[in-house]
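User: My instructor asked us to take a sequence, write out its structure as tokens, and then describe one feature of it. I'm not sure where to start. Here is the sequence I was given:
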Amino acid sequence: MKLIIQGGFDFSDNFFFGINAAYYDGGDNNPGFAGVALYPQLDTSENFTLGLRGEYFVEDGSFGAIGTSVADSSVFAVTLTGSANIGSLTIKPELRLDSATDDSAYFLDNDLVPQKSLSSFLLAAIYSF
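Assistant: Let's start with the prediction itself. The structure tokens for your sequence are:
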């Protein structure tokens, strides 16, 4: 069985609250997963938006999406994103913090050793024409 729920609410002209949830039951001998993401977004001005996304994802068995190779692993992540509009240019800085229950092959330190957590910063520039 697979279930996906996606939606959002505009609480005001400048505040949006979104939700995304997913569930997959792999059956008797197959792994599955469940996850939820909540993301409030605030327009602080006509040209700047601030968003915060909290996510929780858990595997039933060893599904493999988290990269731990350990059954029933989970990960919690928080992402803070800004969005600045300057004419046709949008600048998006993003800070993300991930924390898993077990060492993950996707969260590597400088020596390429798996860790339980990861922090990252991204800066995107999008030009619309």
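For the description part of your assignment, you could build on this observation: The radius of gyration is 17 Å. Try explaining in your own words what that tells you about the chain.
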